Amino acid sequence: MSNRVETYVVGYPRIGEGRELKKVLERFWNQEASYDEVENTARDLRHRHWIDQKDAGITFISSNDFSLYDNMLDMALMLNAIPERFRNIQDEHDRYFAMARGTDNAVAMEMTKWFNTNYHYIVPELSADMPFSLNAEKILGEYRDAKKYGIRTKINIVGPITFLVLSKRIDYTYDTLELLPTILAQFVLLLEKIAELDDEIYVQFDEPAVVKDISFEVLKQLASSYGILADVSAKIKIIVMTYFNHATEAVKALKNVPVYGIGLDFIYGKENIKALEYLNGKKLIAGIIDGRNVWKNDYKGSLELLNSIAGKFNKDDIILSTSCSLLHVPYSLEHEELIGEDIKKRMSFAKEKLSELADLAKLVSSNKNEVLESSRFKSVNPNVRERISQIKRNEREGTFAERIAVQKKALGLPLLPTTTIGSFPQTEEIRKLRRDFKHKVISQVEYECGIKNYINACIEFQEDIGLDVLVHGEPERNDMVEYFGEQLDGFVFTKNGWVQSYGSRCVKPPVIYGDVSRAKPMTVDTILYAQSKTKKIVKGMLTGPVTIINWSFVRDDIERSAVCEQISMAIMDEISDLQNAGIKIIQVDEAAFKEGYPLRNAEVADYEEWAIKAFKLAVSSAWRQTQIHTHMCYSDFTDIIHTIEKMDADVITIETSRSGNKMLKVFSDHSYKNQIGPGVYDIHSPRVPSMEELLEKIEQLMRVLPAKKVWINPDCGLKTRKWDEVRLSLVNMVRATHNIRCGLEKG
Ligand code: GLN
Ligand code: ZN
């Protein structure tokens, strides 16, 4: 390989080492900071992030990877695609945040997951009659700004195909791609403006939409669009960037299109190796530093990979890159003093990944075969491995029909049993209690006393209003995954490992570094305490293995399915302990089951297989008479109904309140055998549903589903609501149910 191997960073985190962006935005929204302060913070952050990359010797550093809220929203504004309801807001900054967050008069634009990451983007709303025009100031300004610091950036822009595929039409049709010619005209104008900036400029068009199974028609549109864009100016070098899976079809479609380079993800798209033959003289931006996980690079593996790429490709045309934007990992390991050295030395966040890229480039150009010590995993717990190899039963005993018959006797529940999903309002008081305990401001005894008081209040309230199956309210949990991770071996928690989820919101995912096992019961004391306060049944409340894995950073030295299996064993033991202690119903939440679905259809069967296996293994210890519930936070089960069937939970509670009964039809059309609790009202809104409204809702449900299968519950946990709202809503829900029950008994 040539002497100087170039390095490339797809994008960099923008929230800031100390979450400066979050803090200033929230102060601005609360009218405690001026817009100037926001701008200053943003400028400082951009500057600092450019310097990080410059200091690490990165060749291709981005501008316009920054955003005050979201890049898709920025794109909508660049195109002047402002929905009608925001157009009368005069101040452009107010308008921007109104689109993102809504106002009293205008609901926010929709937000949804960015592919299979935990980042959420704002969904642009387009219509054919919109007055599209170009506003390139942000893009041009950032480029000029970086140049002042001596950095000639590559400019990141969401590509036209991905932009349209991810947008929605608000006029007569669903077809966003129909707008391609209109949008492209604006992109051409944009490139003309960019061409005035310098004599040579790199532009990265992000096109992750092409890593999904896309149609021949869209591939044709991809090729013709880039044909047009590549033609705009000889000064502009276009890079089509893909990530999260392989992009073989797209590379093939672009074979004869004269763009400068194509970015391919070799971490999450191993099959990209097959795409190389179609590159046809373009540069390869080879994504080999994992942009989505927190582990140190495996240099030996990377060199082998590079060798196999070089075998099929002109090696001088390879640029070493991150697999995707580093937006999806935390900023830096620097302040993680709480993580033990043995684990920390295996980890790498965004800033450390820059050095890894540089190291890899050095290794490659030195042509020596020395390999950097990559500190790969050694965390094996022989007991865990031994137990897994000895698994005898991996699913429950008895068919659903057999189980439900014994459960009916054991539980003695009325028709249309009422329940809730688990959490009750997380009041400021309860948050403070947890915080004070964590910071050792209060003693264990004081903490436990506070938790017990909250549980007492929850139980008393639920008895008072006449719910049938009670919960303890989850006051001890800050987060449904963290709570279990903190008690399991094999997990570690960061102090500052924040990753942007949307806008100013960040999450701090747990890190699974080693074999997972449960040292002792995790929830038994709490649930038993709650059960001791009532004669009604209290549901045990656990988070399922698939959700735990989908919301964590997971070790990458063994298969995800193997990690998941270990978590299943821990949950399985917890279920045994709960039922031995007398708990009759146990809910295993799988809120994130659907999030883990792969982007390519060809990979779906494999995911479904191990995810179902993991869930079934987790509940395999439940006796026939122990009723297993699960909860999933979404409504569209059309594609996954067979999978849900195979999970075979006795009861599934789901979100249907917003989407109506259309979605429920899937369950009736498939004559889903097990019991279902379709959420009867939307907990995401503070609105209290009236008794009449709920009555009507339940009646509608029963037109689709037989009464003996139906549970009545809200559509998710109540932790974000206020007590006043919860009280009134649940009273109405119980009253409506009682009315219907009466009618059924009479009729
Ligand atoms: N049991 C959890 C709760 O009620 C479930 C949360 C969720 O589905 N996201 O909070
Ligand atoms: Zn939910």
Observed structural traits:
747 residues, single chain, TIM Barrel, alpha/beta, 23 strands, 25 helices, binds zinc ion, binds glutamine
CATH structural fold name of the largest domain: TIM Barrel
CATH architecture of the largest domain: Alpha-Beta Barrel
Q: What is the mean predicted local confidence, pLDDT?
A: 95
Tell me the major beta sheet: 8 strands, parallel
β-strand number: 23
What's the level 1 CATH class of the largest domain?
Alpha Beta
Strand portion, in percent?
Answer: 5-15%
Describe the protein.
The structure is a single chain. The chain is an alpha/beta fold and 747 residues long. The chain folds into 2 domains: 7-19 and 46-366, TIM Barrel; 397-487 and 522-746, TIM Barrel (Alpha-Beta Barrel), CATH 3.20.20.210. Helices cover 40% and strands 13% of the residues. The protein has 25 helices and 23 strands. The strands form 6 sheets. The chain has an 8-stranded parallel sheet. A 6-stranded parallel sheet has the order 13-18-20-21-22-23. α8 (216-230) links the parallel β8 and β9. The protein is globular, with a radius of gyration of 27 Å. It starts with 6 loop residues before the first strand and ends with a helix. Residues 421, 591, 631, 633, 716-717 line the site of zinc ion.
